[in-house]
User: Fold this.
Amino acid sequence: MGLAEDFLSYIGDIRGLSDNTVTNYGIDLRHWLSWMDKAGLDEQSFTRDDALSYARELMSEFSERSVLRKLTALRTYYGYLIRRGIASSDPFSGISLRMKERRLPSVLTEEEVRELLSVPRHGYMDERDHMLFLLIYNSGMRISEALSVDATDFDFPHRRILIRGKGDKERFVFFSESTEQEIKDYIPCLEAFRMEKHGDPNAFFLGSKGGRLPLSSAHIIFEKYRKTLGWQKEFTPHTLRHSFATHLMDRGADIRLVQELLGHESISTTQIYTHVSRQRLRNVYEMAHPHAKEK
Assistant:
């Protein structure tokens, strides 16, 4: 990626942006570079018309929230190129997609969760992917929290995991009795792979070379399973976290309990799930009530 790699190093090492931001910007840049390569373009020949075409294509494939993030990444990248004298202007300048309404998060149905967790497994990588999905859906933890979990963080007598969230704040998340057995079944497979690769002695999720599973690989895993299952909807680590919270709310969980489980500082952040549940209730009403079906 050349210039793009230099840019990612710059925003991480010099500007001090978070690892999450650097990773997401890298994903966004790779998508754009692949699009340009197919179109026979490069950074220097890319025009505003090209930028508008790319933005329109993004809108046909991604949510508005994702498009806005990708455009922000590209504007930041061109700012870097301009400072280095490589580009004279930013073709993405002034291109904005106003979000007309607050976007409800993508949520899996309970049947889709069962489908996801029923994908056949063969070998450590499949077992790891299954465990990653299972733990996030069971506990509601963030993907960064899940990837930071060590084997010693599990408290089996109380079926809970000590995790370190934003700002290094510690909290417990919980898992079910059936998940406890799956975790115990996973550990021998994990240890065998760890020994084979001389891997990280602590990490609960290992990458293909034996180190702790990186965030960039986790996003690739989610996209792979989305395609395998033939889902058209967005499926990301946050989708599973949204699903965890929404299914709790659908079954009557108190919003402040859900707030605590998610590690939200403000109740207003958690309230999005009440909107999701209300929307699902409306969908059920419109499907089931005879008057709702009248034309």
The chain has a mean pLDDT of 84. The domain at 3-83 is CATH 1.10.150.130 (DNA polymerase; domain 1). The longest helix spans residues 19-39.
